[in-house]
Sequence to fold (279 residues):
Amino acid sequence: MTREEFEPVQNLPFNSQVEVYTNARIKEYPHIIEEQVCTHAIFPMGIGNIKPARPYTVPPPGEAKNPMRAEEESRRRAKSKVLDIVRCNHFQYMLTLTIDGNKLDRYDSQKVYQKVRTFLSNATARHGFEYVMVPEYHKRKPGEERPAIHLHGLCNLGSLEIVPAVNPRTGKALTEKGKPVYNLPAWIWGFSKLVPLDENSERAALYITKYITKSEDKIFGKRYLLSRKLTKAPQIIPLAPINYSEFRDEAKLALGQQIECNLYGDTYMVTEVLGKPGE
Fold:
């Protein structure tokens, strides 16, 4: 799929104070191209040197008329951002970090976040470690007042050392679905597990973001953690307006080739994967 096949909006007058929107856009990642079409024109055209204001009102935190709906929308936005990050970067490993209750209060989000933040900051600064991590609660066990915290994520090691994980009873190297499993000695606050990723980055993206939609809480005051040098967003190509009803295809929706979601109110969006750049 090439850019020449799209119909980007062109020849718009430059005016830093003009807010121009369309209902269709292309999101171009290194390995995939998506087309998104909405029922309303909500995508800014990027005209001028200011970021256009949203075409809808966002209430202050805690003041939404429908808190449950606002929470759902917050999770959806976070999932979308993490998907963008995973699709825009190449990661080597799937990473899981747990907390040893003998070393740290695994139920205290502030204490856990302090250790996690210090570990990630040091690994990034000293070893070139790159990551996107999503905190999650364990299922609450009988007798627990609060669930314990752990983290899932994707990473590039840089110069961080890893060692093969072994079965403590047999001494044999551990594997997961035919892949070798590793431990991260630098994580001293509990158990760590790394599994090499294959080329299916989309599967990895969906795996990591499922933990965002499962949790109703911002465990560390945020839904995900990421290193600064990662590419955060794909190339956005605004398109001329597209008829939503004509773009929306029941057959493609049934086959999973299109995905429709309710963004807010009566605004809906359909996303379709078109192919790979250059196809």
User: Anything to note?
Assistant: Residues 24 and 37 are 4 Å apart (CA to CA). The two ends are 4 Å apart (CA to CA). The longest strand covers residues 267-275.
